[in-house]
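Repro:
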Amino acid sequence: MLSFNSCKKEEKKSDVAMQEESVNKVHPNVPQCSNGYHWDYNLMQCVPNCPSGYIYDPETNDCIPNEPSGGSRICGAEFNQFNLGGYTLSQVIEYIGVKHNEYQDFIYNGIMADTSVLTNGTLQAFLKQKTTTFFKGLGITEANNPLPGNFDILDTSFVITGYSSSATTILNQLKGIADGYTDENYFQIINTLENLKQQALNLPDFTEALAVAGCISVAKHSYQYWTYNLTKWYAVLHLSGSGYANKQAPCGINVKKIGGKDVIGAINGATLGSFGGVVGAFAGGILGSATASAGQVLWEAAKCIPYVGNVVRWLSDWF
């Protein structure tokens, strides 16, 4: 069998055609930089070739570390005591919200294991013991607790001091979201809180970003927790029906009220704790908000249900 390969003869471009093609191409006017430099199209000048992990800073005319920003910033060695050193700020903020919810279930499971603590006068001692155990597992103890002796987990006052104008604006927005919460706009609020958290993570001051974003994380997780878990708390407290949820006081046990108290607890805790630096803001925020949740539920129940004992200032030895 014979086979034939067809060949196509390519014509070589003429010198004239090549010259015309060259004229039609755009050749950028890039000055030749010295060795170790390259042309920066934004600055329109030669800048040094920085080593890996560094960027050129036109203000100092030098190479500086390419520091992460926003939620990508790294928590330093001071967070080793919480086993969080080296984690990103975003991860630590999520951790605050997750541990807030885990604390609620830790208290709930403890009550379920021995419901007699609700009636035998040992509830306050029970709560202190459980809280001490839980937070010790997080590296937060009575010894390194950053909150002052007069801190009140049931304080509902909304006072913002020591924050920048940007942080204050975000916290005021958070308070407005909490005040406007309804069960019907739950999903919208969760999305709004997530967007607000991203704004807080971009605050330039690291301590401020942690304190403010931590408060928002608490709010988001608190609404999620109580939306899906309040019914089981009604049951263990012998609250039947929805009447209690609709009351304002006493026994105003509903998602809006508890979530709102968590926001205040987080803000107060983080604000007072921040006087001890970024670690204080972390410990104060998570401690103030978590205890405000369960404390608020039991406090409200105690005001109108003889079945539940008094739980006022049950961490008085800590604060």
